[in-house]
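Session log. Operator J.P. requested a structure for one protein chain; no other inputs attached. Running the standard single-chain path with token output.
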Amino acid sequence: MSTTTSNPSSGRAMGDLPYKPLSRNEIAFLLAQDLPDGSVVNLGIGMPTLVANYLPADREILLQSENGILGMGGAASGDEIDLDIINASRTPVVLLPGASITEHTIAFSMMRGGHLDCSVLGGFQVAENGDLANWLTAGSDAIAAIGGAMDLAVGARKVIVMMEHVTKDQSPKLMQTCTYPLTAAGVVDHIYTDLAVIDVTPAGFVVRAMLEGLTVETLARKTGAPLAISDKLVMIHRNAQGNPEYKQN
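Structure written below.
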């Protein structure tokens, strides 16, 4: 495993090939393919709810929603739309065969009681020790919105964060230390961004996969903490159908 340090400057490094960051739907597609068969998963508000639209047909992945759905499907359309059946982003969704509806306290008991294999959350910042900040920024117009994120962050067996790698002004969102108020400390296991898939380990951030055409040096400059590169690093490219997938470097 090799290590590289971060550099806050922006710009494309010598050796970069043309690359196009993943869209939010492409991040969701890639993450959905990595969810194991038989897992019980909660999808948090925002970007994570997109994952429901890309679950592999040959796997049984049971989606739980904090509003009381167990057996949630993807986005509803046309006559499927029922405004009482919504996900965390308030988007109408379908119910899969066998789905159940519970009241709120039962849903939160599932979340807090260790019954979720995985929670997928959005993030404003993630620190190299796994700290997560995803409910309030430092902006003057920021609105606090914690929802069930604290429960999900500490109640699930594994926490995955989906986020863009940098902010709109190109500031890193992967940090040595979070500067925003924490949702939970030391909880994040994996991070899926528009540039890379990164594991959070006791030694810090380890890049497991990165976008084809992107150099390690550029990724490091867009990251606010040191990066280690996995010995099993794979590249992310778009296949003939335009979907992201892994290929050996």
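Operator note: Confidence is low (pLDDT under 50) at residues 7-11.
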